[in-house]
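Reopening closed ticket. The problem is back. First fold of the pair:
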Amino acid sequence: MVRTFPAPWRFIETENGYCILDATGQALAYVFADEPNDQGEVVGLTWDDAWRVARVISTVPEVLKLSGHQARQLVDEESERK
């Protein structure tokens, strides 16, 4: 049996980053964000980077419907939004 993950996908902020959900509320992925340590360094993804990754993952259903050129254009537009 093939599982489907209906569109639209969305992402929500959690205590530790972001969770990507399908239209039914099924959690599909988690993107974790990291806070700066005592030296001001971030070991993992910053909150801004985690937001960008979550946003791109949430557009997968739309990207799969597009032609190659349209998909690249959508990803470029999404990366410029933040």
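Second fold of the pair, where the issue appears:
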Amino acid sequence: MKMPPITLIVFKGFALPAGTAVTLSFSSDGVTWNPLIVIQTDPASTYSVIWQPAYPETYQLRASWSGNATYSYTTSSPVTLTVIGAIIPNPSLILAAPAQSS
């Protein structure tokens, strides 16, 4: 999936039971996973998070949870997306005054 720059990615999911802590992670190489956020599911056992990738790149995204006495640990299959375009620079403005003559 190709996404334009400055795109907001919406994670939505369902996990049992309500109040479950779900870890959302991303990876650039599919090997090293970086936690993005840990979020609790709502009373309907769902969650939703908005993420804005910082750089144009191909990302893999996944959700996981640590399990409990009834359900074991699980991790979703990764989903791949590509953010294209250039990084929008942070503009800066430098003001200078002429030197005073003596």
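Update: turned out to be a display glitch only; the data is intact. Strands lie at 2-3, 9-14, 21-27, 34-40, 46-51, 58-65, 74-75, 79-83. The CA atoms of residues 9 and 51 lie 5 Å apart. Please close again.
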